[in-house]
Every structure is written in C-alpha cells, then in structure tokens.
Amino acid sequence: METILASNRRKIGDFEVVEFVDESQIESVRKKLDVDVPLELHWTWEYGSEVEELRALYERGKRGQWNAETDIDWSIPLPRDEWFMPQIGGALMPSVLTQMGADEATCREAAWDEFSHLISQLLHGEQAALQLCGQLVNTCPTMDQKWYAGSQVIDEVRHVEVFSKFLHRKMGVVHPIDPTLKVLLDKLLAAPTWQTKCLGMQTLFEGMAVGIMDLVQRANTNPLIKEMITRVHQDEARHAAFGILTMRRLVKESDPETLAELEDFAFNILETLNANQQLDMLHRFGPKYGLDPESVVQATHGWDQWSFINSEPFMHTVVPNLMRLGLITERTEQKYRDCGILFGDHLTARSTLPEV
Ligand SMILES: [Fe+2]
Ligand SMILES: [Fe+2]
To answer: What is the distance in A from the centroid of ligand 2 to the CA of 297?
Structure first.
C-alpha cells in the first residue's frame, strides 16, 4: 500500500506523524498551482432520468439555493476581544495554553488565530470541492449525475464566496493552505478514475467537511458564524446524500479489485490527514505562543480521552459511511483503529447522514 508523504514522516512517541518543517518545501507545495489531472469525459444521449432519487435531489438542490451576500446578516459583529467558543475544549491552542497557566487575553488571541486558520483551510477545501465537482460533471456517466454535480458546482462556489467574505470582513486575514492539506487535495483532484473521483469528493471530502463543521457549530456562540455554518451545512448534507446514492451503485457494480483500490485510496488519504495532528497549524503559530509543536502532540496523546477526541471528526460521518459502503473491511479496520481514526463499536450511531 502506498504511503503518502513518506519522506515527511517521523515518530513522536509511538505515533507516526506527517509534518513539514522546511520552509522552502512548504513554499514549493503552495506554489504548485498547475496540477495535471486525468479526466475522461463522457457524453450520454440519455436525457431522461435513470435514477429517480437523483432527480429528486436535484430538485431539492434548486429549492435550497441561497445568496451568500443577501441571506447572511453581515452586520453582526465578531469582536476580537470576546470569546465565541469555550476557552477549553473549543480549540487546541487555547486549551493547552489554559492548562499551562497563560492569561486569558493570550488564550483568546490563540483561539482567534486557530479559528481564522481553520476557516481558511475550509475555504481552500471549498475551492478544491469546486474544482473537483466540475470534473464530476465531465466524467460521471449518467445525465442524472451530471445535472446533480452541475447544481453542486454553484453550491461550492457559494461556499467559497461565503468563507472568503467572512474571513475578509470579520477576521481580516486569509491564512495560506497547510502543505499536508494541499498535497491531499491534489491527490483527490488527480484521482485516476471517475470512481475514485466520486469517492474522494462525495465520501471523503464531504464526509470530513460535515464532521468538522458540526464540531465548529457545537462549540461556537457567535450568531453570524452559526448562521453561516448552518447554511453551508444544509448544502453539504444534500451533497452527502448524492454521495451515498452514487457510491452505493458504484460499489455494487465494481469488481473486487476495484473495491480494494477504493478501500486503499480512502485509507491512505484519511491516514495522512490524521497523521498531521495539526502540526502544520502548530508550526505556524507555535512560536507566537511559546508552544513547541512536538510537546503539544505528546501532551494531547497523553490525554485519557485522546482516542475519542481524535476520532470525532472522522467518526461523525466519513467512517460510518465507508463502513456502510463496505470500504472498510477486515483488511483495513485494525489499521484505522491503530492510528486513532476509528474508535468504539457503534459506528452508525453518531452519523447524521440521511438514509437514502
Ligand atoms: Fe462545500
Ligand atoms: Fe459540498
């Protein structure tokens, strides 16, 4: 099985992390703006609907359109000197700094930096979703899929719009993309077949986005952020339903060899994402707050609840969906458990995805 970013890996304790420490390597990853992506374009002459549920979802998508400029109340303030998340448990740096005895203003500033960093990464992720969804319009075989993917393109444009306006208007900064995220997004965009593109976009990507947004939503108390995330989240739930519908058929029609390829592809992406352990963020802000990235990873891995907390964004949606699709099997399940992505037994209990 392929190891992504093999030369950027090392052990912290027993855990294998992926990190970027060389500034010139980080810069070269960010400067890679042109990505060679394989794309097989399919025509179809069947304009009638072949998959009724997909047409219904397309209709739902049309009804669910909203305007990021006029449907969001941009007059709601986001004061920098007020908490909009709990001091402990809302984000990593303020939690660790509080434990270390830092003063409240410092913890609040760290929360601000970490949140603007997170929304910046979501913004870059939305741009990738936009690009990848555009590929799906070309590459998906049926007209139902093309129509739906086409309607999702405008949703993803709106997400890029709303997050970039939020960052510019309310936080005054857009942080550059984390190098690990950039490498992984390039992998998804350069996935070789429409099947891997669908898996990457609709299951991995959408699943992670829904999990992270739900966690942000639970911790956040600012009404503007709540409104923005609620609206984006509604669109993402529809995208996830498209993913389930499409992936179910795709899995049913795939041979064992293709299924094994999809299973490995999913594991490699999620394992690498998890192996970063927020080190890209910690390398960026650690010096400002006197935090040593390695010590932070060591400290969090010592928490009693580490496995549970670490697995939360994964266990929310993406892991239960992969299990349901049969893309986590005995071959990979233990590996997911060993790196702290898969935790507990009741895999579907916490998923918010609709049964379709
Ligand atoms: Fe999106
Ligand atoms: Fe989406």
So the answer is: 30
